Amino acid sequence: MNKILIANRGEIALRIMKSAKEMGIKTVAVYSEADRNSPHVKYADEAVLLGPPPSAQSYLLGDKIIEVCKTLGVDGIHPGYGFLSENGEFAQAVEEAGITFIGPKAHSMKVMGDKLSAKEAAKEFGIPLVPGTEGAIEDPKEAIAISREIGFPVLIKASAGGGGKGMRIVEKEEELEEQIHSAISEAKSAFGNGAVFIEKYVSSPRHIEVQVLCDSHGNRVHLFERECSVQRRHQKVIEEAPSAILSDELRAEMGAKAVDVARSCNYLGAGTVEFIMDESHNFYFMEMNTRLQVEHPVTEMITGVDLVKEQIKIARGEALSFKQEDLKIHGHSIEVRVYAENARENFMPDIGKLRVYQRPHGVGVRVDDGFEEGMDIPIYYDPMISKLVTYGKDREEARVRMLRAIEDYKIVGLHTTMEFAKFVMEHPAFISGDFDTHFVNKHFKPEYLEADVAEEGEQVAALISAYLLNQQSNKGINPSEKQAKQNSKWKANRL
Ligand code: MV4
Predict the structure, then answer these.
(1) For ligand 1, is residue 381 a contact (CB within 6 Å)?
(2) Which residues pair with 365 in a beta bridge?
(3) Active-site amino acid positions
(4) I need a surface site. Which of 19, 84, 294, 393 has the fewest CB within 10 A?
(5) pLDDT tens for each residue of 267-280
(6) If you measure from the C-alpha of residue 261 to the centroid of ligand 1, how many angstroms do you get, rounded to a whole number?
(7) What pLDDT score does 460 carry?
(8) At CA 329, angle to CA 328 and CA 335, rounded to 5?
(9) Domain spanning 206-449: which superfamily?
């Protein structure tokens, strides 16, 4: 593979290009009119404009992207996450054009894209599933009988949903039939597929997912878990690896089950198997994400494996260079998603310019971003500015380092979710590791945030006055005094 096209934008496009560069592979960026000046466009060896800002006229134009590949002699496409990454038809079209799709086969995407077929495939391999109906509900009477057996509350889920879309909780038997009917019609209009099923509702689950890698020679490994329970309306906000609550035995068991889920759909490449875990530490398979995930860096930090490089090597037909026994967890990593959102205003997306943008640095800090100072955050796409990742010898070091990195990260011009992340990092439930997917609803109120230091005017004013003070402090003092000041600065720097 000599040249790959990255069918994505922002931080993930840059992230992928960095690994390609280290492998001596040329890169091609694609971009929309909103992203003309983006770092991912400048970083690539070549860049091609796809069209106007809306995704449907740019990053989702699969056929156009394939044409670009043919013109430029591209031999591999990396889809990143979102956009075309889990589109089986696109993966198929790429392969048919004689280009390597850096990801799983269309078949795996199709099996895992439908929640019922995913459960069916997993069941054959003895993967633990939440009790519920088998297959789509044909007769509400049958569904009522099963719900009575497993007990209320139950959850109605759309087979074509996923990531929390098309779910509804039903508390009482009397409400079930009506809820089933509206769930079916909603699923029909939202997904073009009215298949729904029922599961017992696990009331306080943790979201724990397992990273897997599978090559084309039948080798499959897991790279341990990521804890993603701190989320808001199915939008993950903070992730970490490893989970604070898994024993080595449980970890090995979940890892083995995740590998079996991958086996059940003949998986190729990097994938993520999502489980929920109840208070008694029973775990159940939920879904498999057939792509590189946003939160993959925390796994890279604790394993030392570059997941993008592994994806490319697997796509080239190489065998994995390590076995399960070779993989060990080293230390702990936490990721904070920095969104252009205002946590005081119900996490409303905040539009504006990155007037000041200064990244944190230092030991154990990684920033994956796709913007530079002076840029606008486009309104057309996900409002994620960056991923702030820390690493430490243990969870506490990673946590304290995250607080330091948040403090060092200077963003002026927009509200971001960093102050919310600080709140989480300092919360006793997060510190103790005793939290579930209800963390945000249970523990967070906007009033808990510190006084609004993010107010743009105030921050700009503070920066200006700091600058003026600094200027003044070098004026009106005699030269020897100035020299003494310089000396002490220099000494301080030497330490
Ligand atoms: C559940 C559940 C409770 N019981 N299934 C939401 C996303 C999708 N992947 C699965 N989801 C859930 N399925 C049963 N039987 C609770 C959730 C859930 C959830 C799961 C993971 C992370 C965050 C969540 C937030 C709300 C609900």
Answers:
(1) no
(2) 390
(3) 291
(4) 393
(5) 999 999 999 999 99
(6) 18
(7) 66
(8) 145
(9) ATP-grasp fold, B domain (3.30.470.20)
